[in-house]
Prior knowledge:
CATH class: Alpha Beta
Strand order of the largest sheet: 4-1-7-5-6
Keywords: Isoprene biosynthesis, Lyase, Metal-binding
CATH superfamily: 2-C-methyl-D-erythritol 2,4-cyclodiphosphate synthase
Pfam families: YgbB
EC number: 4.6.1.12
GO molecular function, one term: metal ion binding
Subunit structure: Homotrimer.
Amino acid sequence: MNIRIGMGYDVHKFGGEGPLSLAGVKVPFDQGFIAHSDGDVAIHALCDAMLGALAMGDIGQHFPDNASEFENIDSRILLRHVNDLIIKKGYAVSNCDLTIVAQAPKMAPHIVLMRETLAADLGVNVDQVSVKATTTEKLGFEGRKEGISVQAVVLLQGKLQQGESQQVNK
């Protein structure tokens, strides 16, 4: 089996009206995100991790923020598209792990639905998707409640094509 690891990171500033879109879930909050799309930082970080694992660039290259067709788009559409891209390359998500960094709003009530939503969009079992949240003890832009950041890592698994062999570095 071939494996690839990718890491993604995204940040969005609060602004406008809520709710927030996070990991495909509408989280009640008095503000939304300032973004070209729906601003779902969790999905954006995950997409970057998936694309990075296969050296396919980042979401900005695939979905430019100056392209009108992506304005206010539901980021779940972007995630499903990225998932289709990795499947066409012969890979699938083995597991992913996301950490949401936010002082507010509280994430705990939404974590299970976030995991279920991401798993459904990726076509994997919910136990292959981890979503966690932490605060910064009121430090930094997240701690000042100016926005949210998300870190994501993903392990992609691919099958060797017939006749291929894994190369081992000596």
